[in-house]
Amino acid sequence: MKVGIVGNYGHNNNGDEAILTGILEQLINNLNIDAKDITIFSNNIENTRSRYNINTVPLMYKKGNILTTGASTIFKHYKLLKELDLLIIGGGGLLMDMYKRDAPLYGTLGLLGKLQNCKVVIYGVGAGPINTTLGKTIIRTLVNKADSVSVRDTNSQRLLESLGINKNIEVIGDPAFFVSEADQEKKGSTIQKIGVTAVPYFSEQYWPEANPEKYKTYVKGFAANLDNIVKNNKANITFYSTKYPEDVQVTKDIYEYMEFKEDVSIIEDNLGPKEIFSLSSNQDVIIGTRLHSLILSSSAQTPIIGIGYHQKVEDFMKVIDQHPSFVSIKKLEEDDFVLLTLVNEMQKNWDTVKQNYQLISANLRDEAAKGIKQLSRFIQE
User: Fold this and answer.
1) 5: helix, coil or strand?
2) What is the model's pTM?
3) How far is residue 135 from each of residues 130, 131, 209, 237, 346, measured CA to CA in Å?
4) Mean per-residue pLDDT of the chain
5) What pLDDT sits at residue 182?
6) Strands of the chain, DSSP E
7) Which is more confidently placed, 12 or 115?
8) What is the DSSP string of 30-96?
């Protein structure tokens, strides 16, 4: 059984790498696929090969301009897909048109797979935003042609249904919930260690449409909120990144605006998914903007506060029934005490909060296991 995996891999986005780690765990350890029969489509083949020691091919074959790149990619992958039995497109937020390449790229690969008689499974993805006519058309066609479709939340399911998708769309847990380490740290009696991830919201180096003033307002609001936690609770703050190196700079910018720097540390390393899981397990609370910092923390039974730079963060907080611990960017910028208030609310009921996250972690892994059942329908014994 030859299996290909297509996604946003090889970019040092360790949220996406956590997804891939989870999918490989499911395929190899749960569905008994031999690692040598798996091919990963990657943005950086050297990066991916060194991480997983699995056959890797370029997601795109860049050659000259966009037209020659597209033609080269189609030609190369059309031949490769003939050798595969199953093509997994996922997971992660692939079904969107916020970035110009995504919908055409993943749509083309899925349709080429069908032309070569591959079974095509769209797996545990997020959908949206989908705003353009072209994006809607490509994504509708891809999903309707796929042999099986699953998404990671009900909002993604509803969005796809609103496009006129005429097939069953399952909701499963994110494959990243299969990332784990044997030992998990026990939380203390008080909240003393707080991990923080920050996305470079509207930064010139990262955001599709940069806005320096919006970026500065966001950074200053984040810094003021963390200062109040350190000042009032004597907590230690640890910044870390799931998207490397882009997230490192924004954490440094927040740090520079903070007053109470002596209780703050920044981890500048490119942490892998299991390292992020271990770090999360060692914290009492995670304040996260990146979705997979929240997912891996929940999996590690560490309570979370979600900062809503993207709809998917709020969606996840609703999925785990923790929406009261969700903070919009606007609220973060306007209220310097909103994070302190939420941390103090957790502290009041700390034993109950810790117990809740033990249940959340178990439930989320059970939801992710639904994906194994989805894939098993296409795995040949």
Assistant:
1) strand
2) 0.89
3) 6, 7, 19, 41, 41
4) 94
5) 55
6) 3-6, 38-42, 56-58, 86-95, 119-127, 148-151, 170-171, 193-197, 236-239, 264-266, 285-288, 304-308, 326-328
7) 115
8) IS---GGGEEEEES-HHHHHHHH-S-EEESS---SSHHHHHHHHHHHHHHHHTT-SEEEEEEEEEE-
